[in-house]
Amino acid sequence: MAEVEYRQSAFTPPATATDILLVRHGESAPAVPGKPFDLVDGQGDPELAPAGREHAELVGRRLAAEPLDALYVTTLRRTAETAAPLAERLGLVPRVEKDLREVHLGEFEGGLFRQKVAQNDPVIQRMHAEGRWDVIPGAESPEALRERVTGAVERLAAAHPDQRIAVFTHGGVIGEVMSIASGSLPLAFLGASNGSISQIVVSGGRWIVRRFNDTAHLSGGPDQQPAALS
């Protein structure tokens, strides 16, 4: 009688689950002191830098053969510009999910956050130590961020059972999704590279982490460095 063997099986999403690829937008235009970014609903809205347009092209090539049922972007143009090459290849029109826009940075909006990070400002040090965005005056609380991100992901999952979708979003949001899914400290997953791909599978109330910060398609590979949050 042949010996019974049980091989390790490949991951299979549960029935009715939604497979969500989270793509961080490409590198956006540099912040210049005295020349704040245009704002959309109070948030900085820079366009992609030349390097960011290259990131968008590389993402488009990487995902062109994936069976994607829908593309989503946020209200901030850097996500739509990053999604554009893939949308053209697939013939899909991106939909907008406003609640996956970037963390609101209060008085550090418009590009000032980057300057404060570069200077290792005491407020930035406190932000990391306490794990709270609202250490920045006027910034979004972690509770408000978690509520809107959770609601957005749950809406997308409800709209796309047994489907795979790509969501072009932001570093702070990707970090929050990963924190929710893994139960990690609030800012543990900050650092997704521009143009990187992360992935969760949502099945009911369960969020399964499949990958974080996949940069195999980018010229820097796994050593690609994360840019500032926004």
From TrEMBL:
InterPro entries, alphabetized: His_Pase_superF_clade-1 (IPR013078), His_PPase_superfam (IPR029033), PGM_Phosphatase (IPR050275)
GO CC, alphabetical: cytosol
Protein name from the UniProt record: Probable phosphoglycerate mutase
PANTHER family: BROAD-SPECIFICITY PHOSPHATASE YOR283W-RELATED, PHOSPHATASE C1620.13-RELATED
MF GO annotations: phosphatase activity
Coiled coil regions, renumbered to chain: none
Domain of life of the organism encoding this protein: Bacteria
